[in-house]
Design goal:
Order of helices and strands: EHHHHHHHHEEHHHHEHHEEHHEHHE
Strand content: 5-15%
Distance between the termini: 10 Å
Structural class: mainly alpha
CATH class of one domain: Alpha Beta
Number of helices: 18
CATH topology of one domain: Membrane-bound Lytic Murein Transglycosylase D, Chain A
Helix content: 40-55%
Shape: globular
CATH superfamily of one domain: LysM domain
Length: 445
């Protein structure tokens, strides 16, 4: 009997999901996990499951409704979950081993495969099914994207951005599944946000949380980006052109536009862009060993700048002759002290719940040594965010190097995320195609 669309029962989160979020995983992945836990429960309730069904199903040994990834994909909770992925994972390994990062086509292919493995994990694969089901809300998206001259799979940028979460709001105030900033959304060719008109007495209209309209805006915006790289490359098949990969990278941030301005719109190539990013990464890593200049960005604070650049608020304030509590201005330039030096002391930022005993064990030293080096008394309590000097010993050299790797990784985070963005999109489009072949539509008649 045809009862219309039936929602497949959504799974409980995997039993290995920790109660606390993994600090080594980029924040957006933890946000996406929380969003889809809510979405899975909502879908289950919509399907008529009793309130206690989620708890009962945790004890089930077999879950036939859960879709498995193709047999050739090796996946498991111990393999990728709660770790960095793609370029982030590769860069950390290279920095720890060589102190630098090398990026070539093989590196990109390895990172892309890593993201494919990520989306094939049971929980993420189920999330992808939920996201793909939203195609039913915009059934003509392929025709619309083709009418703009671009690959219809650009539609999946909303999955890369937010897993198609219409209620998503970033720290920079980007809104909706496709994360449009208000300034971009107000462009005449996009018009997701229509300003209030005091003369006519009309209020502001903000459609950034409207799934179909924001999807159309994404197609329009990406087409306009491609036009900026020269002649528009029409959609001709499954392989994305250089222009399209550059446009996808540009959608995530301004590095691609900086590259275009440097070499000229008629000389761009994705291979050239990767070289540009690698050079920026190299320059950034070198700069950490010298006094350097930093330009204030939106939402920056002295504390966040100090944390990301491996220094202290007091040192930045002293070097620039400013009050540590003085407000910062967008575009203001500050001098930063070297973050990494062979002669600099190694410092560790105390996490929530950190104790001298745990930290001493981590760095192969003693509580007494930590107290002596940091001038702490026996009754002194540690606070989250407090900085401790770490004794230099032969035994803890590896741990101290790991701290320096963390500083380097924070410094190049944006560059790595931009490279990963296009790789994640390529991974999503491939896994989505496999999903449709092996599983069929997520919503079934």
């Amino acid at each position: 009997m045809n009862e219309g669309f039936k929602i497949r029962q959504a799974p409980s989160p995997p039993e290995d999901t920790p109660e606390t979020e993994d600090p080594s995983v980029p924040e957006n992945e933890n946000v996406h996990r929380r969003h889809f836990l809510k979405l899975a429960i909502a879908a289950a309730l919509a399907a008529g499951m009793p309130d206690d069904a989620q708890a009962k199903r945790k004890n089930q040994k077999e879950k036939p409704h859960e879709k498995a990834a193709p047999a050739h994909i090796k996946h498991g909770p111990e393999q990728l979950r709660h770790k960095g992925h793609g370029m982030w994972k590769i860069a950390r390994e290279q920095l720890a081993k060589n102190g630098t990062i090398s990026i070539d086509e093989k590196t990109l292919a390895t990172a892309r495969e890593d993201w494919q493995q990520y989306y094939h994990q049971p929980f993420e694969y189920q999330q992808l099914g939920h996201a793909l089901s939203r195609r039913a809300e915009f059934p003509d998206y392929e025709a619309f994207y083709k009418s703009k001259g671009i690959d219809p799979d650009v539609f999946y940028l909303g999955i890369v951005e937010t897993w198609f979460n219409d209620d998503a709001v970033s720290k920079a105030k980007a809104v909706g599944s496709y994360q449009f900033l208000k300034q971009t959304a107000m462009r005449p060719d996009i018009r997701l946000v229509i300003p209030a008109d005091k003369k006519k007495g009309t209020p502001e209209i903000d459609n950034r949380k409207n799934f179909e309209l924001s999807s159309k805006a994404c197609a329009t915006y990406v087409a306009s980006i491609i036009n900026g790289y020269g002649k528009l490359t029409p959609y001709k098949g499954p392989n994305p052109s250089d222009n399209l990969l550059l446009a996808v990278s540009h959608y995530n941030g301004s590095f691609a536009n900086q590259y275009k301005d440097k070499v000229g719109p008629d000389k761009v190539s994705y291979a050239g862009y990767v070289e540009f990013i690698q050079q920026r990464i190299h320059d950034k890593l070198i700069s950490l060993e010298k006094e350097r200049e930093y330009e204030i960005e939106e939402d920056d604070t002295l504390a966040s700048i100090a944390h990301d650049n491996g220094t202290k608020v007091e040192e930045i304030a002293k070097l620039n002759g400013i009050d540590p509590k003085a407000p910062l201005k967008l575009g203001q330039k500050l001098r930063l002290p070297p973050a990494i030096s062979p002669h600099s002391e190694t410092e560790y930022v105390v996490p929530s719940g950190g104790t001298l005993g745990k930290i001493a064990k981590m760095f192969k030293t003693t509580v007494e040594e930590l107290r002596k080096l940091n001038g702490l008394k026996e009754k002194d309590m540690l606070k989250a965010g407090q900085r401790l000097k770490i004794p230099h010993t032969t035994e803890n050299a590896a741990e101290r190097e790991a701290l320096k790797t963390n500083i380097r990784m924070r410094a190049i985070k944006g560059l790595l995320e931009n490279l990963d963005y296009a790789l994640k999109w390529q991974a999503v489009r491939k896994v989505a195609a496999e999903y449709d072949k092996t599983e069929g539509p997520y919503l079934t008649p």
